[in-house]
Structure formats: C-alpha cells, structure tokens
What does this fold into?
Amino acid sequence: MSLHGSDLTLSSTAARSLRAAGTRRRRSLPLLGLLLIAPSLALSITVIGYPIFDVLRMALFEVNRFGRLGDFVGLAHFVDAFSDPIFVQAAWQTVIWTLSVVGGTVLISVPVAIILSEDFYGRMIARTVILLPWAISLAMTAVVWRYVVNGDFGTLNMTLSALGLPFANYPWLAYPTTAFVIEILVGILVSIPFTVTIIMGGLTSIPRTLYEASALDGASTVRSFTSITLPLLRPFMQIAVVLNVIYVFNSFPIIWIMTNGGPSNRTDILITYVYKQAFVFGNLGNAAAGSVAMFAMLLLFAALYLTLTRSTETAEND
Amino acid sequence: MTKAKRSILCWAALSPLLVVAIFPYATMLSTALKQKDEVFAVDQSWLPRGLYLDNFTRLLFERNFGQAVLNSLTISLGATLLSLAVAIPAAYALTRLSVPGKPFFRNYLLITQMISPIVLIIGLFRMFAYFGMINSQTSVIIAHSAFYMAFAVWMLQSYFATIPRELEEAAWLDGASRFTGFVRVFLPLCLPGVVVTALFTFVSSWNEYAMSLTFLRDASQQTAPVQIAFLTGTLYQIEWEMIMAATLIASLPVAIIFAFIQKYLIGGLALGGVK
Amino acid sequence: MKIDRKYVRALALGATCLALSFQVTSASAKDVVRARFAEYSTQTGPFFQELAKKFNAANPDIEVKVEHLPWPEMQQQLVTDISAGTAPDISHMATRWMAGFSQDGVLAPIEDLMSPAFAETFVPTYLDLQKQDGHTWGLPIAASARGLFYNKALFKQAGIDAVPTTWDQVYEAAGKIDALEGDFYGMGIQGKDLDAEGYWFYSLWTHGGAIFGPDGKSGFASPEAVAATDNYLRFIKANVTQPGVTGSSREDLQNLFAAGKLGMVLSGPWFNAQLAEQGKDVDYGISTIPIATTAATYGVTDTISILESSTVKPSAMKFLEFIFNEENRLEFGKLEGFVPVLKSESTAPFFAENPKMKVFLDMGPVAKFAPLIPAWEEMSDGLRSELSAIYAGEVTSEVGLKRAAERMDALLAKK
It folds into this structure.
C-alpha cells in the first residue's frame, strides 16, 4: 500500500497543478456517458417495462383470470381493492412489518458491523456465520423456520424445554401475535447479512486518522461514534434503509410459507394479499390495482425519505 | 485492551446473533441425518439415531439434485457476468462523466427495484413466451440481470466514487487513453467493490425462486431452490429429511464463497486507507 | 382499444409461432401431447412418466410428454401458461378450479371425444361431478372420502372399548385420551391452510347443515352450522385437541397421529400410505365420520382435462383413456391410496377386502361435495379466515359465521 500511497501524493500534486490544462477536456463527454448507460437502460426497459405496462393495463381494464382484457373500467378495480377490509388490514400490517423488520435490522446491524470491523481472533469465522442466513433462499429459510418453530416436533421447543423453559409444545404459529413476531424476527435475521455488508463497506471508507485525531483531542469513544462514525455512515445507511424497505415491503416467501397470511388474515401483508387475489381467486384486476397502490406507497416513501435525508446532507456539505 | 480480551468481548457480544444464525443450520443438519420415521417421533432429539447419509445419496443419485445445483451455478454466473457487463460502464459514466438526465436515470434505477417480480410475473412470462424463450436458461439470466443490475450500478457507483480522480488523471498525463486508464488504473483499484457487487448479484440470482419456477419447466433445467420447493409440494406429505439435506447442499457453495470473499472485504479496508 | 386488438393479434401470432416451433422440433407428423400432472407424492411423477413410455411405445404416431409439478405451484403455472398461450394439452387440476376455467372457455368439452363405452366405466357419482352446463369438462383422476382414524393403543390405555360413532362419544373419548399421562391429545382439529374448511364441513354435514341454504344463499350461518361450529369449540375449550388449532395444517395433524401423540383425526385414504412409512409403530383403525344427526363424509375429486387450446385433442383423449384403463387405474389407486373411480376397480380385492380401504368405499353413498362455482376459492378463504377467528375465541360462532355467509352472498351476487 505504501507504493500506492506515494503514487497518490505524487499524482495528486501533479494533477492539481495541471487540472485546468489537461483534464477538463476529458471531463464532460455526454455522448460517451449516454453510450455507457445505454446497455443497462435497454436491458431493464425491455425486461421490466413491458410487464409494468401489462400490470397498468390490467388495473384499468376488465380482465379475466387469464389476463384477457375486456372493457375499460377506469378506477373500478381500485375502488374494489380499497373497499375490501382485508386490503386495508393488510396495508396496515405491511407498515408494521416493514417498520419492524427494517428498524430491527438497522438497530442490530450497526453494532454488529462495528464489532466485525474490530480486529479480534476468529473474525473470519464470525463474519462468515453472520452471512450464513443469506446463503439460503428466502423460500427455503421460511420452510426451515416453519419446521424449527413447529409446536410438537420443532427444534426450538425441543431446545427451550431442554433448558427448562415451559414451551414443550407451544404452537408459535397458531396465534397471530406470536406468528407475526416470529416472521418479523426471521425477516430481520435474513436482512442482517446484506445490511451488515453495506455498513461494513461504509466503515472501511472512514479514514482511521479521523479517529486518531479525535482521540488526541480527548474525545470519548461514544463521542467519536456520534460525531465521526454516524455522520460518515449516513450515505451507506441511506442505501441500506431504502433498499431494505423496498425488499422487505415486497417480501413474499417468509409470510406465505410460514402462515399463508393467517390466522384470520392477521399476518397478511399487501404482497400476499395481491398474490392471493391474482393466483388463488383469479381477480387479476384487483391484484393489478393492489400492485399499483403498493408501488405508489413505496414511491411516496422513497421520495419523502430521500428528500429528507438529502436536505440534511447538502446542508452539511455546503 | 489486549487482542485476547477484545476477542472475548466481541464474541460475547455477537453470540446471541450467532446462535440464531446457526440454529437453522443445526436443524437442517440434524434432520438431514435422520430417517423418515425419526423426524416425527414422540421423543425428539438433536442427535440422529446413527450416521445416516442415505438422504444425501438419494438426493444426488436418485433425484438428480446435482444437476439442479449445476443449473443454478450456470444461471447465477451468467446473471452476474451480464449484470456486471452492463453495470460497470453505467456506474463509471455516473461517477466520472457528465450524463444528461443523470438524476432521472438514478431515480429510474430505484423505481425498477420497487416492483416485486411476483407482481410482474404474468407480464414477464407472456413476453418471454412471445419470444419463444420458455424453458431456456438464457431467459432467466436475462430476467435476473435486468432486476439485479440496478443494485449493481448503485453499489459500484458508491465504490467508484471513493477512488480518487487524481489517479486516473495522472495516467492520462502519461499518455494513456481514457479506456486504458480505466482498465489499468481504475478497475484494479475498485476490484474489491466489483467482487462484492458480483457477490450480491450472484447470491440474489442463486436464491431467486419465482422467475426460475415460472420460466423453467423441464426438470433438467430447473434450479436448486425450485427443486427443493418441489420436495415440499407433494399434497399429502412433506419429506422434511430430504428438504433439509437439499437445502444444506444448496447453501454450501454460497457459504464457501462467503468464506473466501472475506479477503475482499478487507481489501475494501485498504481502499479506505488510500483515500 | 386499438392497441388492445393489436396486442391480442401479436399474442396469437406468438402462440402460433410457438406451436409451429413445437411441431417442427417433433419429427415428422407425430402428435405431441404435453400432459401435466400434479404430485400427490414423490411417486406420482415417475408413475405417469412410466405410463407415457408404455403408451408411446404402443402408439407410434403419438408422443406424450409428461410434466409434473407440486400442487402449490399448479394453479399459478396453469394460469400464467394459459394467459401466454403455452398451456399443455392435458392438465391435472383441482375440481374446484374447473368451474372457473370452463366458464372462461379454456377447457375443451370431452363428451364427444370419448369412445362410446368409456364414460360407462366410471362410478357415476364421480364422473357427474365433472359435468357442468351439459358438458363433461374432465375426468376424475383422484377421488377420496374421509374417515375417522383412531389410535388403538391409546384407546386401550384410556379404557375406551367401543369405537365412537357420534360426536358426543368422540368428545368423551377425547377427554379420556387427553387425560392420559404424557403429551397425548384427544382429537385433532384442523384450522390452517388447505382444506381447513373441509375439516369444518365434516361437522357441518353431520349436523344436518349444508353449504347452500334452501334459498340458494349461503348456508354458513344456519343454526346447523352454528351447532357444528360449537361442536368443535367444545373440544377446543375443554383442551382435548392438539395445542394451537389455528396453527395446525393437515400435515401437522397427520404428523401428530403418525407419531402416536394424537388419539383421533379425520383424514383420507392417502394417509394409510404415509402411516405405513412414517408411523410403522402406530396401531390404528378407521371408522366412519362421527355423526350428530346425519351420516356424511366429504368427497373430493381432482380433475384431469383437455385444454381448449390443444391442437391434438383426439390424441390427448387417447392417452387419457389409456391412463383410465382398468389395469393402470388400479395400480394408481394402490400407489396413492385413492378410492376407486371405475366401477371395475371397486370390486378389486385391494379395495373390497382391505378394512383400511373398505370404510371409504362404504361411505361413498353419503359423500357430499364442495360446490362447483367460480368464486368458491374466495368464499372458502373467507370461511377459513372466520373459522380461525372463532376457534381462537375472538368472535362467537354466530358472529363469525354470519360474516363468512355475507361474504359468500356478496360474491354470489357479483358473479
């Protein structure tokens, strides 16, 4: 690294002195920029664009269970969906689900990432184990956890009762509250690896010299955490929160496989509601309207969140 | 604080999470080694009756699960390469060039992530069917890349932004073209970022279920998660011991990659040092 | 509307191209028949694959290609396939989906495709279930009735001499078993997932209730239905069921019974096959569904249909007739443990002389079926949801059932 280091000092002085002459010419190449962006744009517009168009159309037209379109019905499907009490209930539960999973994930991931960035024996092993939940697909995680929390044969109750706790055959998934809590915990567990990785990436980008300087100034560990770590982590936290909210909001397998939205729709979230409407009940129109509503909710969240965090960010930069 | 003392503290603080993360794996291993009549017996135990490996051999030889793992590998590698191939230029353009409509493109990328593939499945399927691409692994590779590319651009962009502009500019002064500068100076520096991004894409593709299920109909083409789901899907009986064995096999390659990738996470640390 | 028609045309074109490409790849003038089966067990797929091999060998002008899928994926796959024009020629499905599918015009009526005597080989009850609006939309590929499975060892331990035949006797027996030393549960009641509403129908029908009232509206809230629900509630309140009724699926109950922890459970003939593998030590018997006022059981069929989009319907029918010949059908029945749908099967020793199969045949005449109406899935989902609220004690039977009935009536009025 020392080689790179000396390179850097050399080149930065050189570059600074010559910036006006040599580099401005290369900086703005709008055509090249567009050309480099074009493949990615083309790929996603082709693959995702048509299905989105398809959903929009199904939301606005009469449609049978096989997607054959009939007359234009305007907002009728939306009215149908919004007047379904289960939709409203699922929307509310989606908010709880998303807030709890993302909140829990961030609260756990930040300290975990900080610990994993420390230098300690067996760090490699600890890091690998923390990443493990990510190595199984969500659907399989849900299947395995459904088995783990099974009242009579699951390994959870087996272990708890071996520890002397009174859970010999406690049916965790039979009650809406415990079922939802378990699902949220599983949701947190599977979101941690992704979040920890992002935050660790952020931590490595904070120069050690900053901490050393603040230590010299006599700042406590807590103080350097709040005044150095957290502010510099902000962009990474922003990515982690936005992406987690999007993924968790749309997360289907955990709830679908563990409780199917039950008991009594009390663990249904919008995505399971939409899936039921589309593929079990054959109401593609309602499902499409529900999807559009979900999209609008996420869009609203992202716009609000990004505006709020961006304004503080620019305020600091200026 | 000595390293030994710090180690004890760190492990102690992490232990609850470690236990929860290992718990399902322990369950998988324990169940995968059990025989059918042991899985639902009155007296449950972590330890199987004996070392019983038949579930694994049956999976690999009778159920041809090895093929499914191979298919998953092909698709995930393909999707990773394709998304990187489109994401690296895009991320470079976003960090280094002035692109008209840059904020629009960024928002667009975010928006493509907001719609769950499950919602889009009918439209996606119709489109691929229209092009006669059902039952082709290429269609899954393309679909995965399209959905995971946005995140790759995002990741790469944030890594690219940490590379000092001066390094490249110095190369240009030495007479290198933009392209040579990019390949010789820029890419090697962000290799850790590229590897981590590749890992994210690989894992997403490796674990993806809904699209693979819908596009691939031949058992010989299907991926590991789909084949595992098929084990759970018989109407009257779930073969837990087989499912657990299969899940264990399917997560093994990813776990191994994770163990190796640590090096690059530390590489990321050095990257921060340069800055 | 303009875009619309263009789109449909493009789709049709795509479908034609696809169909053409299928034909090109299939050497010369062979009829390729794609047949899709849902898996009852891991043996279902291989069984039909084997049959197709035999059939292809005997019919050089037809090539049957078998696909098999797990049940939970069947509906979504079939819907997506039909919407994109890539549906198979033959598809297995739940009979309750058939109603909606036939109304939307995606199934082919088969009465004119069948050879003359073929329809006569079926037990009329089961074939009649596949008929609607004067057409036959499929064949009953599987049929089952349900019975009371009871653990003989637990009965003996609890001092129960006679097999209970009424709900009151079952209640009493359940109490005795539950009181035994150890983690034993008296009676299993299902409150979750597939067929949770079916578990309630046992009680509904044996209390003289019905899904439709005499006025053609929902019968979910009738006095009989309330009595039927309260019947289960007394088991739950007395704590003589497995813990967590609202979290127990059919598999959960079967697993408990196979482990020897459950005294009684209502289930179907397929359960014999599972017990033979998983519950080797369980000594059990099967009896009729307990009654309150009326004898009844829940009859369920699954259907195999030819799709309207198929261009090789006669060849597809030929294959169907092959799988429904006496020999193949009997083998299938033995493999999966379903009740006979062919008249000739019913007299086979496997069914007639096996006490663990015979009880299901005997109950055939009192079997009742779920209605074939397009929105049934949605109605039964509403019912399941209310039932689990009732079982959990959140609402009374009257209130919950009334809501389920209102939902059903609203759906009936809409369609």
